[in-house]
Amino acid sequence: MKDNKVEENDFVLFYLSPRKKWLIQVTNEKQIHTHAGFIEGKDVIGKEYGQCVITNTNNEIYLLYPKLNDYIFKSKRATQILYPKDMAIIASWTDLSNGMNVIEAGTGSGSLSCVIANLIRPDGHLYSYDIREESHEIAKKNIEKAGLSEYVTLSLKDAKLGLEERNMDVAILDLGDPWTLIKTMKDCLRPGGSLASVSPTINQVEKVVIELQNEGFLEVETLEILMREMEVREGKTRPAMRMIGHTTYLTFARKSLDTVTV
């Protein structure tokens, strides 16, 4: 962000409440419509982020600079996206950072791809594969929207047919039968490289873990991340009655030197 002011064609997060917010690209001609009233685009351009604007129905809506999570959760998707709690653990366990090269099978909507690209830029690169044309096109648009396209190479290809990338630092599997690609990802990884597999069901996890062990991977472990918000009110603070429970299982492993492919 060059400065703290809204410019034409910026994506802006219009914030009414924690559950009512909209990510909208602003132009001079556009009217921004919400169920709290509408705002003229020309009245938003030049305002500072953090400032509020008044709708035609006299409601206050704040202008916020969008975070990566806002792009992820407000973008089009054909499949269920990973939650931040899961993506954060993947990023932490695999030590994603600037300069890393990552390979991903199962691009989906590109939500995890955006997180990976954001962490490994500007010197790293993500190579992501998906067999579904719809997912490929949606991911391409979502990654472009987040401004991360130069750090990602998307391929519409079945990864099971073989991959050319080698000496990757991290491999990510997010598809229905990840165990079928363990050997392929092993060949792509450098010795000591990390692998992360995303599986909604425990049956998938069992097959993944068995295959990882058969291929000589080390430090194999599976996690389930649960998260609960707190309702904070003076004198009445307590855990929320509802929580984000099971979303997926995360399996991690590291390639040993003994599994180097010649």
Can you describe this structure in just a few lines?
The protein is of the alpha/beta class and 262 residues long. The chain is built from six helices and 15 strands. The protein folds into two domains: 11-66, Vcp-like ATPase, Chain A, domain 2, CATH 3.10.330; 71-259, 3-Layer(aba) Sandwich (Rossmann fold).
Structural commentary:
The protein contains 6 helices and 15 strands. A 7-stranded mixed β-sheet has the order 9-8-7-10-11-15-12, with helices on both faces. Strands 2-1-6-5 form a 4-stranded antiparallel β-sheet, with no helix packed on it. The chain has 2 domains: 11-66, Vcp-like ATPase, Chain A, domain 2 (Roll), CATH 3.10.330; 71-259, Rossmann fold. Strand 7 (101-105), helix 3 (111-120) and strand 8 form a beta-alpha-beta unit. It is of the alpha/beta class and 262 residues long. It starts with 10 loop residues before the first strand and ends in an 8-residue tail after the last strand. The protein is globular and about 65 Å long. 35% of the residues are buried. It has helices spanning 68-73, 84-93, 111-120, 133-145, 182-188, 202-214, and strands at residues 11-17, 20-25, 31-34, 37-40, 52-54, 60-64, 101-105, 125-130, 152-156, 168-173, 189-199, 218-224, 230-231, 238-239, 249-254. The model has no long low-confidence stretch (mean pLDDT 91).
Low-pLDDT regions: none
Number of strands: 15
General form: globular
Q: Termini distance?
A: 46 Å
Overall pLDDT level: 91
CATH first level of the largest domain: which class?
Answer: Alpha Beta
CATH fold assignment of the largest domain: Rossmann fold
Rg from Cα:
21 Å
Helix-strand sequence: EEEEEEHHEHEHEEHEHEEEE
User: Which strand order does the major sheet show?
Assistant: 9-8-7-10-11-15-12
Q: What can be said about the biggest beta sheet? A: 7 strands, mixed
| Tally of alpha and pi helices | 6
Q: What is the assigned CATH homologous superfamily of the largest domain? A: Vaccinia Virus protein VP39
> Helical percent range?
10-25%
Percent strand equals 25-35%
